[in-house]
Amino acid sequence: MSNKIFKAIWLVAITVFLASLIFIMGISYNYFTSLQKKQLKNETDLAARGVALSGMVYFDQLQAADYRITWIDGEGNVLFDNEADFQTMENHLERKEVKEALEKGYGQAVRFSDTLSDQQLYAAQRLPDGTVLRLSIVQTTVWALVLGFAQPICLVIFMALLLSVFLASHLARKIVKPINEIDPDHPEAYYGKENYKEVEPLLRHISAQRRQLKADQDQIEKTALIRQEFTTNVSHELKTPLHAISGYAELLANGLVKEEDVRPFARRIYDESSRLSQLVEDIIDLTRLDSGDLEMEWEDCDLYRIGENALDSLEAAAEARNVSLDLSGSRSMMKGIPQLLYSIVYNLCDNAIKYNYPGGWVKLVVTPSEKEIALSVKDSGIGIAKEDQDRIFERFYRVDKSHSKEVGGTGLGLSIVKHALLLHGGRIRLQSQPGQGSEFVVTFPLSAYRNFTKA
Ligand code: ADP
To answer: Cα(89) to centroid of ligand 1, in Å?
Structure first.
């Protein structure tokens, strides 16, 4: 980067320098030309006086190597020329400077001379006897001027090059140094500091990115920890019913069970294997939700209808525990994944039955409104203590492990509910007191799929 800055500064310095040089040369050229014209006029004036005084003799003693001198009579005939053969020269009456001199006493012109093949400056002066004396000189060209200045120009260019290289590298280093000294771990430390004002937006950007990176990293670590815990818990949870099943089966196989105990043993094997298959199903559901590997379609669903189906499936379980089920509310259309919406309602109602007292009740209410659909599952069950209310949504968390096992719980039902809700942008609220029942209220926002509610 410092190399690039150096090149940029150096290029700018050299460009400015060359542009100034060309500009100065242009001005100098104009200045020299006007000086030359003025000088020529003076010389012509002096020579005219000389010729007026001495006539042709003046030319004999003349040493004018730089000047061309021509003497022309009133009719334009050339009487004398110090550089060309005057006898062969054509009539000069039509030459601008001669014409002007004859008319006004003095004339000037700049022209390409055919005779001398050069850009010439001409000055002509009328003498008292009516003849005209003309002096001309080769106009200095730009190149001649540059050539004349070649030595000092080369010296100045050389010095400018040296100076610009030195200044550019010094400046480049000065600009880059504070940037290189930034500690990327603490960009905030440079806010407001003198040398860092220009790069403060960059510092703020670095700082924001670092914060984002840290948050992402924390999230990744947290997720990894949850996954690891989950794997440990899964193997433990699977082993327990498997050990029980193989233990009972071994006793039966070895004929170590009394005749009257065979049926209860078979019942235990049946219960444990049901629990095992429920557990495997829940783990599969949760893993799918976790990895986002869902092959399910979003559809227009009626949440009331889904509630009806869930209660139908739970009827036998409710009857067995002597718990009454009640559904109220109205048709509530929303866009969602029907299997997941079903598992939300099913799990909440299943819990409301499982953690209830015999003779208790469960009320499911589905109510649509302008902004959202609310689904409430209220029970007359055992309730949940304040300190457990957040934790019950964690995987494998059970308030009373043995009770959960007894009623066929896996500790994963509410985790599945939480995940499925997240996918639908829904929220869950819990109101409960031990011994006084619980109410879970789920809300789904309708803003994203309002059109479907009017169907
Ligand atoms: P489980 O399979 O054990 O029911 P859940 O994740 O569905 O797992 O629930 C976690 C725990 O939350 C349960 O073990 C239970 O202790 C408590 N719980 C859930 N719903 C209720 C409820 N309606 N009444 C009382 N306790 C409940």
So the answer is: 127
